[in-house]
Amino acid sequence: QVQLIESGGGWVQTGGSLRLSCAASGRTESTFAMGWFRQAPGKEREFVAAITWSRGSTYYTDSVKGRFTISRDMANNRVDLQMNRLKTEDTALYSCAHVALLEVGSTWSPKIADEYDYWGPGTQVTVSS
Description:
Layout: E1 2-7, E2 10-13, E3 18-26, E4 31-39, E5 46-52, E6 58-60, E7 68-73, E8 78-83, E9 92-100, E10 118-119, E11 123-128
Parallel strand pairs: 2-11
Antiparallel strand pairs: 1-3, 3-8, 4-5, 4-9, 5-6, 7-8, 9-10, 9-11
């Protein structure tokens, strides 16, 4: 089992910045990747960004490219999401998620929520004009 706890959410004005962190504990030695998703009220959960644990390959949804940066701290089992130039449409509950090591020959789609096996409770981000 892997436990995930997010922090760093809050309220910020349009154009501001926030840095989210997700601390992982438990069987973290089995981590293949970590990702961030968000869900706004009345909307479906949406992929934001992901990073593979060993290579550090990153993936972003188009709406955050150039504004958000995902990074990992392998020594402390933490993944961060630096969010700059925030917009009102970035308002949502942000959750981090974990992907265990893949079986040989299998593939992974970072944008698909079902590909992740453990989830944190989320941290609220509110951006107002």
